Amino acid sequence: MTAASVAALALSAAAAAEAAAAEVEAAARTALAAAEHARIAAEHTREAAEQVAEAARLATATAEGDTALADRAVLEAQRVETAARDRFHVAEEAGFPEE
User: Fold this and answer.
1) What is the pLDDT of residue 96?
2) pTM of the full structure
């Protein structure tokens, strides 16, 4: 092999190495862009999760309030039922008023 052919091979190898380096650089830039997109997506996911958690807290608070109102309504209904039953028994014992 002559010095000229070795030099030509070296030049070809250098050109291939330069092209490979450019490909590696492009791949690194693409990977960096993908990582940035993933970071942004993760941030959006975190924000959405926080909003869902807040909505769940509000729904729980509303449900607890509704439960308290329902409990009060049940107690009031039981009180009214007891009063009506007592009046019925008093009227029953008195022979009911005749109309």
Assistant:
1) 76
2) 0.57
